[in-house]
Design a protein that fits this description.
Blueprint: H1 2-25, H2 27-35, H3 46-57, H4 64-87, E1 91-93, H5 103-110, E2 123-125, E3 138-139, H6 158-175, H7 183-189, H8 210-220, E4 223-224, E5 246-248, E6 250-255, H9 260-270, E7 273-277, E8 285-290, E9 301-314, E10 319-327, E11 339-343, E12 355-360
Parallel strand pairs: 2-6, 8-11
Antiparallel strand pairs: 1-8, 3-9, 4-5, 6-12, 7-9, 7-12, 9-10, 10-11
Helix pairs in contact: 6-7, 6-8
Protein name: Cysteine protease
InterPro entries: Papain-like_cys_pep_sf, Pept_asp_AS, Pept_cys_AS, Pept_his_AS, Peptidase_C1A, Peptidase_C1A_C, Peptidase_C1A_papain-like, Prot_inhib_I29
Family: Belongs to the peptidase C1 family.
Length: 362
């Protein structure tokens, strides 16, 4: 019996190395399978990939010089996606709508968390909640508290979408009504600053902070509907706030402890949470549970935590991995219909570091 156990262990180990070797030797093939459908040839050149990318995302460039530049960036991002695939094997990485952007362009146009992370004067530390009877899986999308995925466009206003998403959920819990709230109001009107940190102000497309936006919303009385103050994805315009059309107000907001059980408890009890994370792997993310071996905890992107799951399969690590369900603001063509799955349990990419819960006035 002992020799059978040894034989089985050796066989399993051999299968593991064969699998890893296959992934390493066929990284480009893995990428190809992610970006083409069954009707396309399986072996494609970089030029073919670029043609498919332009067609899928409607990319048009103004000159031959710009086209050449974007193709060079695209080729670099193909290699980057392959590196991400090796560093993050439980997710799928490949070509996205951002594959013709340099990392600095991507950060400038599609991220946007900025400023300090101190507790604002009107924020409280969220009380410690019981965690014994938390559900194994939970998703506010199934309970009507999450609006459809939105798109911030080429504007570093992620912080405003994280803010409205949390207040939309809180308003739903308070009133039973799901109302899409105005990010453009925050982009145009919110210039809240942290007086203790120079340059830490909400600045439209140049970034902001969710806690500062909650502070603004508390002071100004609330937010208008999206349809009454629609999103344009630009800043520098005049504030068009009409206080008679405010539909959702903040009664208080709190910062949640850096503890994933407490984050889960606050999510279940209080609704979707405004969170910040490091988006290093998100430019190439296509689906699956992202659980990179290495990821900075320097926060640069605001998103909305809407749920969690208990079993995201991780082939490379031979076990089921629990994960967070995150609503992003890059449209439904990105990720899993606009959502991101990030593994739970060890503050991956800083996901536990800045979490806020908001309560809406009834």
């Amino acid at each position: 019996m002992e020799h059978l156990r040894v034989l089985f262990s050796v066989s399993l180990l051999f299968a593991f190395f064969v699998s890893v070797s296959f992934c390493e030797n066929n990284g480009e093939d893995i990428l190809i399978r992610q970006v083409v459908n069954g009707s396309e040839p399986k072996v494609l050149s970089s030029e073919d990939h670029f043609s498919l990318f332009k067609r899928r995302f409607g990319k048009v460039y103004g000159s031959l010089e710009e086209h050449r530049h974007r193709f060079a960036v695209f080729r670099s991002n193909l290699q980057r996606a392959m590196r991400h695939q090796k560093m993050d094997p439980s997710a799928r990485h490949g070509v996205t709508q951002f594959s013709d952007l340099t990392p600095s362009e991507f950060r400038r146009m599609h991220l946007g968390v900025r400023g300090g992370f101190k507790l604002p004067k009107d924020a409280n530390q969220a009380p410690i909640l019981p965690t014994k009877d938390l559900p194994e899986d939970f998703d506010w999308r199934d309970r009507g508290a999450v609006t459809p995925v939105k798109n911030q466009g080429s504007c570093g206003s992620c912080w405003s979408f994280s803010t409205t998403g949390a207040l939309e959920g809180a308003h739903f819990l308070s009133t039973g009504q799901l109302v899409s709230l105005s990010e453009q109001q925050l982009v145009d009107c919110d210039h809240e600053c942290d007086p203790e940190q120079e340059g830490s102000c909400d600045s439209g497309c140049n970034g902001g902070l969710m806690n500062s936006a909650f502070e603004y919303t508390l002071k100004t009385g609330g937010l208008m509907r999206e349809e009454d103050y629609p999103y344009t994805g630009t800043d520098g315009g005049t504030c068009k706030l009409d206080k008679s059309k405010i539909v959702a107000s903040v009664s208080n907001f709190s910062v949640v402890s850096i503890n994933e059980d407490q984050i889960a408890a606050n999510l279940v009890r209080n609704g979707p949470l405004a969170v910040a994370l490091n988006a290093a792997y998100m430019q190439t993310y296509m689906g699956g549970v992202s659980c990179p071996y290495i990821c900075s905890k320097r926060l640069n992107h605001g998103v909305l935590l809407v749920g969690y799951g208990s079993a995201g399969f991780s082939q490379a690590r031979f076990k089921e991995k629990p994960y967070w369900i995150i609503k992003n603001s890059w449209g439904e063509t990105w990720g899993e219909n606009g959502f991101y799955k990030l593994c739970k349990g060890r503050n991956v990419c800083g996901i536990d570091s800045m979490v806020s819960t908001v309560a809406a006035a009834a």
